[in-house]
Amino acid sequence: MLLIRGRRLTLEPTGWPGRNPGMARRVSVYSALSSQEVGPGARRGAMGVADEIEVRDDARGAVLAVRALPRAGRDGVAGVLGGALRVAVSAPPEGGRANRAVVEAIAEAIGVPRARVRIVRGERGRTKSVLVEGETAATLRPRLARALGENR
Questions:
Q1: Is residue 44 a part of any domain in this protein?
Q2: Which uninterrupted H or E stretch holds 7?
Q3: Model confidence, pTM
């Protein structure tokens, strides 16, 4: 048993094919805590989950850190992970389809036209820097809070 932030997590034996049946299942600390503590609608007192996302001002707009989750069940904002906005997309990471889906999901979530959202770094990886043109960090944070289900 593991105790993290007051939550009890247990490691259970599994019968995965090709593995030792007595082997304990790996439990990701992020996945175990994310749905209740940093997922959509999470509450953090005075500081909201949207305040944890790395957003910086740029000459062209606001740049935010994004962690893409390709081949997900559905498209949309999935919470915050390590200072980055988690964006789940059903598209596979082939031929730039997941990148286009990430841009569309972010634009829809924060309510800006898709043409104002661009990936500026990380086109071939899961961790990306996304530029939202014409926005500042101060104007983007309330939009992110609404997308994450926070009342602001």
A1: no
A2: strand 7-9
A3: 0.68
Mean pLDDT of 13-32: 46
Pair 119, 53 in one domain: yes
**Measured between alpha carbons, how far is 134 from 131 in angstroms, rounded to an integer?**
9
CB 116 within 8 A of CB 107: yes
Given 3-state DSSP classes, what are the helix, strand and coil percentages for the chain, each rounded to the nearest 5?
30, 30, 45
**122 and 84 part of one domain:** yes
- Contact (CB, 8 A) for 99 and 123: yes
Q: Are residues 70 and 29 in the same domain?
A: no
Give every CB contact of residue 137 below 8 A, 6+ residues apart in sequence.
Answer: 55, 56, 57, 62
CA 15 to chain CA centroid, Å, is 31
Q: Which residues of 69-87 are buried (b: 16+ CB within 10 A; e: fewer)?
A: bbebeebbbbbbbeebbbb
If residue 104 lies in a helix (H) or strand (E), which one and from where to where?
Answer: helix 97-110
Domain boundaries, position 54:
49-147
DSSP classification of residue 27: -
In a domain, 14, yes or no: yes
* Residues 92-114 pLDDT 10s: 999 999 999 999 999 999 999 99
